[in-house]
Design goal:
Elements: E1 2-6, E2 12-16, E3 22-24, E4 27-32, E5 37-44, E6 51-61, E7 64-69, E8 81-84, E9 88-93, E10 99-111, E11 114-123, E12 132-134, H1 136-139, E13 143-145, H2 152-164
Parallel strand pairs: 3-13, 5-12, 6-11
Antiparallel strand pairs: 1-2, 4-5, 6-7, 6-12, 7-8, 9-10, 10-11
């Protein structure tokens, strides 16, 4: 798409803009296929750099990282232990300014019926309203956030499911 504009008060110029970014709202629901989690509430946070997911029972043993996602108070908790042979240790500054050591794993997330790769830091988010926080590192070059919108991807998923139902 071509846009007409001015640069620094100079002569008008044409700019090519790639407008293939997806508009997402401030909260949504997403699937994490590799983690067998569906319709998990997520908060879009442009103030956070990294994305994080609620995780408990995180233990390093036998050269692997063992953990469970969500907790027994969450309705979608499945008690399944996951083992990650590939993971990183990162230091993240939390919203209260404290630097925390966290484990980072690679996974995938399904939004708008597309699967994207995502890096997730494992964090105790039990006291938080949303078990998943999506940060700028994931959002950049893929999404535009409209804070007035809610559950855009989830509603898109429901609409697609409704359209695939065959009438007799």
């Amino acid at each position: 798409m071509l846009y007409f504009g001015r640069a620094l008060g100079l002569a008008p110029f044409l700019v090519y803009c790639n407008m293939e970014k997806i508009v997402i709202g401030r909260v949504d629901k997403a699937d994490f296929p590799a983690l067998r989690l569906n319709d998990i509430a997520i908060k879009i946070d442009t103030g956070a750099y990294t994305s994080s997911i609620h995780c408990e029972n995180i233990v390093e043993k036998e050269d692997a990282l063992h953990c469970t996602f969500l907790d027994d108070e969450h309705p979608l908790y499945n008690k399944k232990e996951f083992v990650f042979e590939n993971y990183d240790i990162v230091f993240v500054r939390s919203s209260n300014g404290i630097i925390q050591k966290r484990y980072m794993v690679q996974s995938n997330i399904k939004l708008f019926n597309k699967i994207f790769k995502i890096s997730l830091s494992l964090s105790d988010r039990q006291e938080m309203r949303y078990p998943v926080l999506i940060g700028r590192k994931f959002l950049t070059k893929k999404f535009i956030v409209d804070t007035e919108l809610l559950e855009v991807s989830f509603n898109h998923k429901l609409d697609e499911d409704k359209n695939t139902i065959q009438k007799p």
